[in-house]
Amino acid sequence: MQRKRIIVDCDPGQDDAIALLMALGAPQRIDVLAVTCVAGNVPLRLTEWNARRVVELAGREDVPVHAGCGRPLLRSLRTAEHVHGETGLDGSGLPDPQMPLAGTHAVDAILAMLAAEPEGSVTLCPLGPLTNIALAMVKDPVTFARAKEIVLMGGAMDLGNVTPAAEFNFHVDPHAARIVFEFGLPITMMGLDVTHKVLVTDHRLDAVRAIGNRQAQAAHGMLEFYNRFDRDRERYGSDGAPLHDPCVIAWLLDASIFSGRDCHVGIETDSGSCMGRSVVDWWRSTDVPANAHVVSGVDEDAFFGLLEASLRAFP
Ligand code: RIB
Ligand code: CA
Known about the structure:
Shape: globular
Distance between the termini: 23 Å
Largest sheet: 8 strands, mixed
Number of domains: 1
CATH topology: Inosine-uridine Nucleoside N-ribohydrolase, Chain A
Helix content: 25-40%
Number of strands: 12
Bound molecules: alpha-D-ribofuranose, calcium ion
CATH class: Alpha Beta
Structural class: alpha/beta
């Protein structure tokens, strides 16, 4: 099977970190060209700091980490320390990074890679607010159109997690999300409908801890914090916190464990109470052509099997 060549745009965040480890732990399947960072779960100075800590944990200092936008396109930044802790990576136990931050802005780095790599060969994997992605599209649409596809975590058909109507990534920068969904590239959307079906239960935590290497130990610490402190868990009454971002990497590793359908997704950018809502035409009640593959189902055991296999692969 041909290796997937990807750029991960993220806002670490424990679930972003687990997604990065899933990708970096499967180098024979996934070639991570670069990690780009955006403000989201915590401010940019922490998301890029955390991304470098995780790339070093994976022993992959060869993968450049670029800082991008420190705020949404129009709205002021809203962060989520109540879920991820003050550092954004509480529970990881990771040291400060030694590797330098790459000197190029994330938006310029994304465009430079898309210009240099063969057309149709690079998959964009946004795991946070879509500010960097949208700006790259606006700055140089011809170059951005050379990308193969976008596989992102964000949105929801059903209820939101940061407001009743909207999921966090799309709510933080709804204007960026709208630009991305109107651009025209193939999009696979991993929304809350599927991510809330992969929960970090105590049983799953024990399995991660049993792997025993340094990466699994850090992953266990992050997940244990995320599970214990994520107030969403109490709010949803679930027996574990949802593992949002790793669904993107699991799709690249084995899309067959997921189910969904092509439909039109619109992003609400005018309504106060529904700002950032993804309006998913799942029942095709309009004749607007589909612009995304919306994922709704997953084989949970297979998902955690992929996660554990990636963590186990580290020496
Ligand atoms: O709504 C969940 C998403 O928002 C995840 O990507 C999480 O890391 C935060 O960015
Ligand atoms: Ca994220």
